[in-house]
UniProtKB/TrEMBL annotation:
<protein>
    <submittedName>
        <fullName>TNIP2 protein</fullName>
    </submittedName>
</protein>
<dbReference type="GO" id="GO:0006357">
    <property type="term" value="P:regulation of transcription by RNA polymerase II"/>
</dbReference>
<dbReference type="GO" id="GO:0034138">
    <property type="term" value="P:toll-like receptor 3 signaling pathway"/>
</dbReference>
<dbReference type="GO" id="GO:0043123">
    <property type="term" value="P:positive regulation of canonical NF-kappaB signal transduction"/>
</dbReference>
<feature type="region of interest" description="Disordered">
    <location>
        <begin position="1"/>
        <end position="25"/>
    </location>
</feature>
<keyword id="KW-0175">Coiled coil</keyword>
<dbReference type="GO" id="GO:0034134">
    <property type="term" value="P:toll-like receptor 2 signaling pathway"/>
</dbReference>
<dbReference type="GO" id="GO:0005737">
    <property type="term" value="C:cytoplasm"/>
</dbReference>
<dbReference type="GO" id="GO:0071222">
    <property type="term" value="P:cellular response to lipopolysaccharide"/>
</dbReference>
<feature type="compositionally biased region" description="Basic and acidic residues">
    <location>
        <begin position="1"/>
        <end position="14"/>
    </location>
</feature>
Length: 135
């Protein structure tokens, strides 16, 4: 392992010597190439940051929408139960109605699909971060 590291060190020293021995215009060309590469990486990083921020904002927006939808569904289910109790009387207070079950299932479906969307966005966000790290 030490020999391998020594060999790599020698190779790097050789590269450094080549750079030192290059004519000035070659050095300038290499500097320009490295600056261009750095600028491209910075641009990609900025783009990735914007995308990540956008995905984060969209995730928060979807979470708020889910919460408000769940609250509305609960309110509608409660109103429906009260209406049906008034119509049928108090005899079946403890028995959930078919309509309230439908509302509950709709709420559950919306929540599940929204959670899946959030998971997808989080996966995409993670992939973008990995790409940024790779770049």
């Amino acid at each position: 392992e030490v020999q391998k590291l020594n060999q790599q060190l020698e190779e790097k020293n050789g590269e450094i010597q080549q750079m030192i021995n290059q004519p000035p215009y070659e050095k300038e060309r290499e500097i320009l190439r490295l600056q261009k590469s750095l600028a491209e990486r910075e641009k990609a990083q900025a783009t990735s940051d914007v995308l990540c921020r956008s995905l984060t904002d969209e995730t928060h927006q979807l979470q708020r929408k889910l919460a408000s939808t769940a609250e509305m569904c609960q309110h509608l289910a409660k109103c429906l139960e009260e209406k049906q109790r008034k119509e049928k009387g108090n005899s079946d207070d403890q028995i959930p109605t078919e309509r309230s079950n439908q509302v509950f299932l709709l709420l559950l479906y919306n929540e599940t699909s929204l959670q899946a969307l959030i998971c997808n966005l989080q996966d995409e966000n993670r992939m973008l971060k990995q790409k940024v790290a790779h770049v």
